[in-house]
């Protein structure tokens, strides 16, 4: 049995776990080490069973806790070359940790098979397609302003997809953000809206995927209920009934979300 578990997810910090049996991977670590360690402990996960840490990109809401955590737990770190260079140059990864580049093809990461794929963001950024030891597949893609062909390919044929649903367009445009920041978020190198996420989920459901995690919701420009309602409206218009035809779960901002089995 494989599980996807978000430890915390949102504009203030992101981290998740992909677990299968006794083995697991950590994806990002965007809050302090105490928060992440407490979440792992609550799940009964020993650091010694972690096969590695996958890093999507260099922004602080994805790497803030890495340095302190790795000083005590020198796990191997995986990511795109540009991201690993940033972590190395800025002293975020201690010298005792191994750095492994992931780009373009599937590589073994402990018991898992992992392939990085590029996402469209304002710094070098990737998502991950992960094969578990029991033959299941999931993909995670956050921090992307548009759904490019490599993203479409990576999300197709998965048992579970964790996809960004960052903002509601009305909330963003009527909110307190200055124009330049709104423009950045809406751009093709920014973030994915609820409407864009919902349309992609419908496409993936029609292709056979049944389980979804909505990730990286903005605290200022979104709510879990609004993100879910946008998805449900899109699915309902196509005759898809949530909880009967699929499972869609919005991930919690500051606490561990319920595990999604896949």
Automatic annotation (TrEMBL):
Which N-terminal residues, if any, form the signal peptide? none
* Domain named Metallo-beta-lactamase: residues: 12-191
Name of protein: MBL fold metallo-hydrolase
Give the originating organism: Faecalibacterium wellingii
